[in-house]
């Protein structure tokens, strides 16, 4: 009898199968174990307090310090076509700091409103590894802080009963047109002879003549706060001064952050233009990536005695009426005697606004008078990143009122929505981005009302990768923030070649009637970046440093003393710019062009205030009369503006002046009484000749 | 003999004499001459004690950039001192000098400035000889207070702003004194040596240091009357 042969295959089979199965099972358990994924949050109550990109980052596992990985977006490919939308994409990414911690902002419940800055700091820094980056209360972002916190402590932070929300800080938006991202900055220059590149806008502004007349800005301290200054070191002593003062608050609260801003060249281009216009001014450069970092950068510049700050950047924060957190930072600078010059924005063709309406109660806002519930975009090419932002005017917090921005295709399918990443976001700010694979037509933006009462709310949509359809474009009120602030000098753009207003240049007025932009600067100009294959510098980003440089030149003409150099007041310098700007249009509506194209004076005779229009009896008692000498017509009306440039009314001639005065018309200012103007300084202007005079209006008699 | 004009031309610009400098030298020479008859006579030397002094003279900034705007002029001085029997005395002294100018400002309709200099110093004086006519050396230190006021205007408005500085200074110099029973007449020359600086003065009144700038040093030549 033969021994029973044992079938050895079964144990081998089991041996072969069980081991990999057990391995897989253990691995699955490991991956799903909350403790194994550092910081992953499972409690729904806590998840509702944390912005989704942060949750995704926690679930993917926070990478090691120094890793460049981000969560929540497709990786930015080199040479993306749409510069601005790529920035919008990054605006929705959780911010990973070089030390591996996350940069978040934290808002507090109303019950915790009694906590002051020190109290908030104590509360937050009791969490291991948590550090307050900036307290945002001063910037009027409500009781809020930006914090640096290890990923594994996010749940503990959200669990604090005082904490309302943990989110991604809002990001700034550079206001250039057409700068590609991702293209490396080559050594300056790449082969060949070094060529000093100067902006063509200088000749338009009469800068070379002014150098002979009034100097080159010696002793003036100019600042640029931007997103990044990649390539600046190679340009020192050539395109930039030999020495510049730099601080980086980008991901840093001590000024030693990433000065390149993750490879951004925008600030370098702006600095070159500033140096072209005012070559002897001292330059202070700082970059920032959050409102808190902007606050720190501004405080540094104020402390250093910077006199002019140029900011070719927009932020989508604020109610559109000149108030908001960034506007508060601008106001802080102005109070310290710093003049803030801001690019007006490039949204003239990509801005829509209207009051909220939903007459059919389907939660989709009606976006035009015909009741259409979507903005149909022009055809979009393949591999194109669409970016857009929805804003509404409820500030600082909008936790009880929310809208979401959706991108849908022609079939009505939602391709993306701000609700994915911004649901429960406490601020009135909803960005989206979407990359197309194929060319598409019929893509639409629509606005969904998701929470609260939307009565008396104004909505705004800004597309930042291209134009809206012409029928949907709303030019008025398209000015960026903080250019809408009354404390900022907003700069629009004109083409240096033909002197025409750029069609994309944003316009006011703001919702409070502020005339914006005040002045235009040239764009489409050369920078040394063109030697690295970049296009000419278009956008209000380019225009802004031209005007800031002009102000520096003007400031430096104040009387020089022995131990002190006196500076003109900001009001006098703004008036100098206003007086010498070349008006673009003679008509009343100057919403897009302001005072006109910037130009430097070459003497007092360049100021257009002339004796052709005079105010009589003003301040000396007696009735106020205005007299226009040599009028262009017998019935020439005078426009009356307030100091913000807003047209307040018209004065009609009271009749010809006395024969002794020759050809002249007189105007009785008491005719302004029905307008109920408040007491103050006003300007009268004859539009045909541009003659203007200021006068004091005493207000209404008690 | 070397040509004095050529010798002067070889000096640094700050040191080249001008007519005011020559005036100061003349004052000093007059003081010397006035003491000639008493030269060598033994001077009365009463016991020490407190004394007041007052004087008038000429103040000249040493920095050529300052002199371009404020070339120099009359200054006044007052002092309170204590003298010991013998050669030594110590004084607390205050000078005052003011001058106006019209700084160049190409866009300004009005441009005026005024500089006031007030050095407050503590000086030690040491008489080299003892007699009715005594040369002496002085050295000390103190603070130079300066104020520069500007009145300037563009368009229809005028702005007035002023900036103030305090600079630590050292003083060296010498002089010649002629002693009488109740008074001492002194002719002195001083170098008040201070630091350099330049500030930007904004219309809001804020002043920002700009680092290197004009020197706060002065030369003063004066006649003082000290009561005994």
Please provide a written account of the structure:
The complex is a heterodimer of chains A (702) and B (228). Chain A is α+β, with helices and mostly antiparallel strands and 702 residues long. In chain A, the strands form seven sheets. In chain A, strands 8-9-7-10-12-21-22 form a seven-stranded parallel beta sheet, with helices on both faces. In chain A, helix 9 (266-277) runs parallel beside helix 13 (540-555). The longest helix of chain A is centred in the first third of the chain and has 24 residues, at 9-32. Chain A is globular and about 105 Å long. The termini of chain A are far apart. Chain B has helices at residues 4-9, 19-34, 64-69; strands spanning 49-61, 73-83, 88-101, 110-127, 133-154, 157-179, 183-194, 196-201, 207-215, 218-227. Chain B has an eight-stranded antiparallel beta barrel. In chain B, strands 8-9 form a two-stranded antiparallel sheet. The N and C termini of chain B lie far apart (44 Å). With 228 residues, chain B is mainly β. Chain B has three helices and ten strands. Strand 23 (564-566) of chain A pairs parallel with strand 8 (196-201) of chain B, so a sheet runs across the interface.
Set down the secondary structure blueprint.
The complex is a heterodimer of chains A (702) and B (228).
Chain A: H1 9-32, H2 44-47, H3 52-60, H4 83-91, E1 95-96, E2 102-108, H5 117-125, E3 131-135, E4 144-149, H6 154-159, E5 163-167, E6 172-174, H7 201-205, H8 207-214, E7 221-226, E8 245-248, H9 266-277, E9 282-287, H10 291-303, E10 308-311, E11 313-315, H11 325-335, E12 339-343, E13 351-355, E14 375-376, E15 385-392, E16 402-408, E17 414-417, H12 419-422, E18 429-435, E19 444-451, E20 458-463, E21 488-495, E22 519-523, H13 540-555, E23 564-566, H14 570-580, E24 613-616, E25 625-629, E26 638-642, E27 647-651, E28 655-656, E29 664-668, E30 680-685, E31 692-697
Chain B: H1 4-9, H2 19-34, E1 49-61, H3 64-69, E2 73-83, E3 88-101, E4 110-127, E5 133-154, E6 157-179, E7 183-194, E8 196-201, E9 207-215, E10 218-227
Antiparallel strand pairs in B: 1-2, 1-10, 2-3, 3-4, 4-5, 5-6, 6-7, 7-10, 8-9
């Amino acid at each position: 009898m033969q021994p029973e042969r044992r079938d050895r295959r079964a144990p081998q089979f089991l041996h072969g199968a069980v081991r990999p199965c057990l391995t897989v099972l253990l691995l699955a358990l490991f991956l799903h174990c909350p403790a194994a994924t550092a910081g992953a949050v499972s409690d729904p109550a806590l998840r509702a307090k944390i912005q989704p990109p942060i949750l995704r980052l926690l679930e993917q596992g926070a990478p090691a310090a120094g890793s460049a990985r981000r969560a929540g977006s497709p990786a930015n490919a080199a040479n993306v076509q749409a510069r601005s939308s790529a920035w919008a994409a990054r605006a929705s990414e959780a911010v990973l700091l070089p030390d591996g911690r996350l940069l978040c902002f934290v808002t507090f419940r109303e019950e915790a409103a009694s906590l002051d800055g020190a109290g908030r700091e104590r509360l937050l820094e009791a969490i291991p590894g948590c550090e307050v980056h900036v307290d945002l209360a001063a910037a009027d972002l409500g009781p809020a802080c930006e914090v640096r916190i290890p990923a594994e402590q996010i749940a503990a932070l959200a669990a604090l009963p005082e904490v309302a929300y943990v989110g991604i800080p809002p990001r700034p938006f550079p206001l250039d047109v057409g700068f590609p991202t991702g293209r490396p900055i080559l050594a300056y220059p790449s082969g060949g002879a070094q060529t000093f590149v100067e902006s063509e806008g200088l000749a338009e502004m009469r800068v070379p003549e002014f150098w002979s007349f009034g100097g080159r800005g010696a002793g003036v301290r100019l600042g640029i706060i931007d997103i990044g200054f990649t390539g600046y070191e190679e340009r020192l002593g050539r395109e930039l001064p030999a020495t510049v003062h730099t601080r980086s608050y980008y991901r840093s609260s001590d000024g030693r952050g990433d000065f390149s801003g993750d490879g951004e060249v925008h600030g370098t281009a702006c600095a070159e233009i500033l140096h072209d216009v005012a070559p002897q001014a001292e330059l202070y450069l700082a970059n920032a990536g959050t409102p808190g970092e902007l606050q720190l950068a501004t405080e540094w510049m104020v402390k250093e005695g910077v006199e002019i700050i140029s900011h070719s950047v927009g932020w989508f924060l604020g109610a559109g009426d000149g108030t908001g957190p960034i506007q508060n930072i601008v106001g802080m600078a102005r109070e310290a005697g710093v003049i803030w010059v801001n690019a007006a924005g490039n949204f003239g063709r990509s801005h829509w606004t209207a009051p909220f309406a939903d007459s059919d109660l389907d939660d989709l806002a009606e976006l035009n008078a015909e009741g259409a519930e979507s903005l149909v975009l022009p055809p979009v090419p393949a591999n194109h990143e669409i970016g857009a932002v929805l804003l509404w005017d409820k500030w600082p917090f909008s936790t009880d009122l929310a809208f979401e921005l959706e991108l849908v295709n022609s079939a009505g399918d939602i391709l993306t929505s701000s609700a994915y990443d911004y649901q429960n976001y406490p601020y009135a700010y909803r960005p989206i981005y979407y990359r197309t694979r194929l060319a598409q037509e019929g893509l639409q933006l629509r606005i969904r009302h998701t929470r609260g009462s939307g009565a008396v709310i104004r909505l705004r949509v800004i597309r930042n990768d291209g134009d809206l359809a012409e029928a949907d474009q709303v030019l008025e009120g398209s000015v960026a923030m903080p250019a809408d602030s009354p404390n900022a000098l907003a700069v629009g753009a004109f083409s240096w070649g033909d002197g025409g207003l750029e069609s994309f240049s944003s316009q006011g007025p703001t919702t409070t009637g502020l005339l914006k932009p005040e002045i235009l600067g040239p764009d489409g100009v050369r920078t040394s970046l063109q030697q690295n294959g970049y296009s000419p510098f278009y956008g209000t980003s380019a225009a802004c440093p031209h005007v800031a440089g002009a102000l520096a030149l003007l400031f430096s003409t104040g009387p020089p003393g022995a131990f002190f150099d006196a500076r003109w007041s900001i009001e006098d310098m703004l008036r100098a710019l206003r007086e010498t700007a070349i008006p673009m249009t003679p008509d009343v509506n100057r919403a897009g062009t302001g005072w006109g194209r910037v130009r430097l004076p070459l003497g007092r005779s360049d100021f257009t205030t002339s004796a052709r229009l005079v105010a009589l009896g003003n301040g000396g008692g007696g009735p106020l009369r205005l007299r226009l000498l040599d009028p262009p017509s017998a019935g020439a009306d005078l426009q009356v503006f307030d100091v913000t440039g807003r047209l307040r009314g018209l004065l009609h001639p009271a009749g010809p002046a006395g024969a002794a005065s020759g050809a002249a018309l007189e105007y009785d200012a008491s005719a302004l009484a029905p307008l109920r103007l408040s007491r103050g300084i006003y300007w009268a202007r004859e539009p045909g000749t541009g003659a203007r005079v200021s006068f004091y209006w005493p207000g209404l008699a008690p | 003999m070397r040509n004095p004009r050529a010798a002067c031309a070889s000096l640094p610009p700050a040191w080249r004499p001008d007519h005011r400098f020559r005036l100061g030298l003349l004052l000093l020479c007059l003081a010397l001459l006035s003491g000639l008859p008493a030269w060598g006579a033994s001077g009365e030397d009463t016991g020490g004690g407190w004394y007041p002094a007052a004087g008038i003279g000429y103040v000249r900034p040493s920095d050529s950039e300052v002199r371009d705007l404020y070339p120099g002029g009359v200054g006044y001085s007052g002092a309170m001192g204590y003298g010991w029997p013998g050669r030594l005395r110590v004084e607390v002294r205050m000078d005052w000098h003011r001058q106006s100018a019209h700084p160049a400002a190409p866009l300004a309709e009005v441009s005026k400035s005024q500089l006031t200099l007030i050095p407050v110093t503590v000086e030690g004086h040491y008489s080299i000889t003892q007699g009715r006519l005594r040369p002496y050396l002085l050295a000390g230190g103190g603070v130079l207070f300066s104020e520069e006021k500007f009145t300037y205007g563009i368009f229809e408005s005028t702005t007035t702003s002023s900036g103030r500085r305090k600079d630590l200074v050292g003083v060296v110099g010498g002089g010649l004194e002629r002693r009488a029973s109740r008074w001492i007449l002194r002719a002195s020359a001083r170098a008040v040596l201070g630091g350099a600086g330049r500030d930007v003065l904004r219309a809001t009144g804020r002043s920002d240091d700009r680092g290197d700038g004009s020197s706060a040093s002065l030369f003063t030549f004066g006649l003082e009357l000290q009561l005994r």
